[in-house]
Amino acid sequence: MNSALQDVKALTFDVFGTVVDWRSSIIREGEELGKRKNLKADWVKFADAWRAGYSPAMDRVRKGELPWMKIDDLHRLILDQLLKDFQVAGLSEAEKDHFNRVWHRLDPWPDSVEGLRRLRKKYVLATLSNGNVSLLVNMAKRAGLPWDCVLSAEVFKHYKPDPEVYSGAAEILGYKPAEVMMVAAHYGDLRAAKATGQKTAFVARPLEYGPGAKVDIDADPPFDVNATSFTDLATKLGL
Questions:
Q1: pTM above the 0.85 mark?
Q2: Can you give the residue ranges of every domain in the chain?
């Protein structure tokens, strides 16, 4: 292991796309909903559009166009518009609410649980996601994700990649920035964490947006560790 990583005591994790496979999970539940309600929609495009609305919605909050909202509420704003755009009608309020909470029920990548269990033998493990706390707790309970701590942008009233999220996480965990390593499948997330003095680990998730989609999959030299999975990350960290 790189000697520069000897002081790392905690790993913080991006969740959507890094720990869990949001796309396949949403497509599956959309298709199940379609069968139950006889809805004709392209659930693949629906899932991609839902995720594509995520960053613009957060930017509206940053610009003051919307008040601070937890991600559940932003997801619902996006969902309501998508139901119109995709001409999905006939859902009750309870059905809309349940479908919106599909983000609480995302499946982990095949290596996630095993890799996290190995990493937890040495490090404090915490989420560091824009997802709200209740979403992350429900997800962990369902998927068996062994977090020591659930941290969310909700705690800091800032969304990643705002520096307050990364610095705030280190402070809450009681560590210096250099004692924390951010783990993510997205270059922007890692670069933002690095700018606050934290270590970084890149884990490639080539299927996040489906086969053939352009994603961050090539290791970027500035990152401290480059891995192909959480189990590979554990091996590279000596576990």
A1: yes
A2: 3-19+109-236, 22-104
